[in-house]
Every structure is written in C-alpha cells, then in structure tokens.
C-alpha cells in the first residue's frame, strides 16, 4: 500500500548520533508512521499504522532521486530508519544496494527485530554493514508494556529471529536497549545471560532523554537533544546517569562486549 507521499522527502539529516557519528537518514516508510510495535517512548508519537505485512511504501527510484541533493554525502554512514520499522519495506534490499552504490558509505539499519524470523528480511539485512536490533525487555510482560507489539510478536518469537540472524550475519550487530526504569538484579542477570549466548558486537544502553511527541511529526526523525519543539510533547522520566553507568560496566565486565550509553545527552541523577 502506497500512502500519499506528495510532500514527503525520504532523506533527512545529517544528524549527529551518539552511536554512529554524523549520519544521513533514509526513511523507507513515509509520511504515515508504520511499525509492528508502538513503543511508549517512540519519537514518532503514537504509531498511526501497525502492521507486520511488508510492502513498498517509498519507491527505490524516489529514494535514489532524493539522495542526489545531498552529494557528496560527507557523513560517517547512512542509516535506514525513519518513520517506523524499516524491515517492513519490501524493497529494503534494493534501497540498501542503491544507497551503497550512490553514496559509497557504510550502511546501518535500525530495526525492532520483529520480522527477523522471515528469511527474506534476514537476507535483505545482509547487505547492511551494521544492524542495530532493539531488545528492551527480557520478560514478556515488560515487552508488552513497553513495546506494545502486535499480537503474535511475543518475546520468544523475537528472540528466535534474533538468534537466527546472529548465526548468519557477518556485519556489526548491535543490541539497543532502552531503559525506562532501573532493572532488578535478576533482570540484569537474565539480560547478561542472553547477551553471553547471543554475543553481539556491541551493546547500547539508552534511556528516554527526549520528550515523546503526542502526534507524528516528520521533524522528529532527526536527533533533537535539547531545546523547544514546535509540536506538543510529553516528557518521559529517564534512568539516571549513574544507574546506566553501573549497568553498562556490569554487562561489559560479565560479557566482554563493548557496552555504551549516551553520556553527553544525559542529565545529572538528581533530576532523573
Ligand atoms: S520500534 Fe521504533 S519506530 Fe517502532 S514504535 Fe518502537 S521506537 Fe517507534
């Protein structure tokens, strides 16, 4: 299903990312936010269209055209993310191949991992140099509460897809975890056990530092770290810097996997 994309530009940024440096964004989803999740902290606001069905939202030709004005693409990498879950784009492989040919830059895909049980999705992602997979919970009730996935996308299925992908993928695999509260000792231990089995190349622990827009704004695809916004937002309470630091150190010493958090974006714990 193609939505009305008349005033839509599929390229945004460059934005400064704490994870990747200077990044140019490709949005393969379009003007209507579309995802299999509806995370409580999502920067797109409440997701407008929840689905697990892959389809072409933005043609590869449009993305190729939209990339041209950004020449010579003087960025650290090109990230496919945008207005929802990028693996829902059926032309993801074509988009990645075209972006690589045009920009000659490393490519990253940020995904919630919900479609990784699909062999076609895993094959598409092989083209990317880096894939970041969201994993916000190790207990099903947490996942339901934080990610609010469509029926059938339970944690067992997500984990199975992620495990299959880990076996096949030779690029850089990151796990991205958003903390909305400090985890108990047991939750931390379970997470570490999972990471010891999965062995991603890196782990990124984050907490909501940006208020959540109450409705979908294309401007929110960028990386606003501070200042006022020209649209209504709702504040979220982040975990403190100290708690993130302790958890990151704990993970890294137990697993040996580089584990990072966005130090420069966070506020002192007295305000958290
Ligand atoms: S997976 Fe990403 S795009 Fe989808 S609802 Fe969650 S934060 Fe938003």
Automatic annotation (TrEMBL):
Keywords: 4Fe-4S, Iron, Iron-sulfur, Metal-binding, S-adenosyl-L-methionine. GO terms for molecular function: 4 iron, 4 sulfur cluster binding; catalytic activity; metal ion binding. Signal peptide: none annotated. The keyword Disulfide bond does not apply. Gene3D superfamilies: Aldolase class I. Pfam families: Radical_SAM (PF04055). Its cofactor is [4Fe-4S] cluster. It comes from the Bacteria. The keyword Metal-binding applies. Residues 205-233 are annotated as: Disordered. Residues 19-258 form the Radical SAM core domain. PANTHER family: FEMO COFACTOR BIOSYNTHESIS PROTEIN NIFB-RELATED, UPF0026 PROTEIN SLR1464. This is Radical SAM protein.
């Amino acid at each position: 299903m193609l939505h009305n994309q008349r005033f839509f530009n599929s390229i945004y940024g460059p934005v400064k990312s704490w994870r990747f440096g200077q990044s140019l964004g490709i949005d393969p989803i379009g003007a209507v936010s579309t995802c299999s999740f509806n995370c409580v902290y999502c920067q797109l606001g409440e997701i407008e269209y929840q689905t697990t069905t892959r389809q072409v939202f933005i043609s590869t030709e449009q993305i190729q055209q939209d990339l041209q004005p950004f020449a010579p693409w003087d960025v650290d990498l090109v990230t496919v993310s945008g207005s929802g879950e990028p693996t829902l784009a059926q032309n993801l492989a074509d988009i990645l191949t075209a972006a690589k040919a045009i920009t000659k830059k490393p490519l990253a895909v940020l995904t919630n991992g919900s479609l990784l049980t699909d062999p076609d999705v895993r094959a598409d992602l092989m083209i990317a140099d880096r894939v970041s997979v969201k994993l916000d919970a190790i207990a099903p009730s947490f996942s339901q509460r934080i990610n609010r996935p469509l029926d059938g996308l339970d944690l067992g299925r997500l984990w199975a897809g992620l495990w299959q992908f880990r076996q096949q993928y030779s690029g850089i695999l990151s796990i991205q975890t958003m903390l909305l509260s400090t985890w108990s000792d047991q939750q931390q231990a379970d997470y570490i056990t999972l990471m010891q089995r999965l062995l991603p190349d890196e782990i990124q622990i984050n907490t909501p530092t940006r208020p959540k827009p109450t409705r979908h704004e294309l401007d929110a695809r960028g990386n606003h770290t501070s200042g006022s916004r020209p649209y209504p937002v709702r504040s979220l309470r982040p975990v403190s810097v100290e708690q993130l630091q302790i958890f990151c150190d704990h993970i890294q010493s137990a697993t040996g996997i580089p584990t990072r958090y966005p130090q420069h974006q966070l506020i002192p714990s007295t305000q958290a």
